[in-house]
Structure formats: C-alpha cells, structure tokens
Amino acid sequence: MLIPVKKRSSVAPQEVTLVIIIFNICIISTMRMLTVTLLFCAMTGLTITNGNPINAPAKELSLNTTLGKFTVSISISTNCPSGWTPFNGHCLRFVSSELSWAKSQQNCQSMNANLASVHSIEEYHTIQRMIRQNSLFSRDVKAWIGGSDCQEENTWFWIDGTPFLFTNWCDREPDNRYSKQHCIQINYGDGKCWSDADCSSLRPSVCAKTAS
Ligand SMILES: [Ca+2]
C-alpha cells in the first residue's frame, strides 16, 4: 500500500510574512524618499530664485507635503519687480545714488518702499551680497538703511514701523559722535557692520517693500 507523502510547502508561512513585511518597508521607504526628494527640489528652487535676484521672475511657492507624522507647509511670495531682490516675502533694492538719509527715504517712497529694516543676519548678508553685485568694483560700500534715533537719543526705530530687535553694531557703536549721529549706515569699518552717522551725509541706500 502506498502511503501518500505529504507534500511540503516550498515556502513556510513565517517566510511569507517576512517577505510581505520587507515589501511594505520598501514601499514606505520609497514613498518617503520621493517625498523628501520633492521637498528638496522645491526648496532648491526657492534658493536658486533667491540667489538670482536681478530680473527675478514673479513667483509664488506653495507646497504641502507629509514626512511621516509631520506635515510641512511652505508658502512664500517671491513676487518682486525686475531689479528687486526677493528675501523672505520682501523685495530689496540697492540705490547707488548718494543722498542724505531723509532724501534716500523719500526716494524709496517714490517706489512704494521704505529704507530697509533688517531683522536677521541672513537678511543682512543678503543685502551685503546685493550691494556687492550692484556696486562699482563689487565693493562693500557704506549705505543707509531705515534705522534712526532722531526723536530721542539711543531709542532706535525702523522707518517702516517694524520692531527694532536685531542689530549688528560695530564695536563702540553707536557713539553719537559730535552729538549729531542719528541714522544707521551699514558696511562700516573693517567689520562691515553698523554705525550711527550724520543723517545729512551722502550715501547710497537700500530700499525694501513687501512682495506682492
Ligand atoms: Ca557713530
């Protein structure tokens, strides 16, 4: 009598389970890599836009993506007119004409802007790069920005009304030398930092306005 031999399954249930788990991990990893890649590409695109400010095309970046349990939302307007440098929702412009602080502000207002307020070292470095790119011989020329303490000595305000929190004063500045320095110039001294200066001095300037 022939006793039928029980055919052994070629794949044990544990092995099937293991294969399914590995397959799922691969799919999840691939999706996350794709998401990370998309996010990286979008951020790279934003950086390139910011790094090529002159004649920058009008752009608005809006991105929603999911990384694991985190949802990342980015929406930054970089819609600046030709000749303006986008930075963090603002448009910056170097004006090479040498004017007093008040006349510089008046000139900015004629372009629906104000003398620039500066709120971070990244913004200051962006302004310095913009000046180098647009000044004669690519120099770090001194220029007016929108800070002054004209109303009360050593009480500083930005002309655009934003809070005066970040500063980049040089050593021993502001010193109100000869008791007549009430306006902020940048790229001063070896440190290319800030000092207070006589508001009637003639300087190039930096204007800023909100991106549309
Ligand atoms: Ca000074």
Automatic annotation (TrEMBL):
Q: Does the keyword RNA-binding apply?
A: no
Q: Which InterPro entries match?
A: C-type_lectin-like, C-type_lectin-like/link_sf, C-type_lectin/snaclec_domain, C-type_lectin_CS, CTDL_fold
**Stretches that traverse the bilayer:** 16-40
- Give the record's keywords alphabetically: Disulfide bond, Membrane, Transmembrane, Transmembrane helix
Specify whether Acetylation is a keyword of the entry: no
Q: Show which residues constitute the signal peptide.
A: none
Give all residue intervals belonging to the C-type lectin domain.
87-208
Q: What is this protein called?
A: Type-2 ice-structuring protein-like isoform X1
- UniProt source species: Lates japonicus
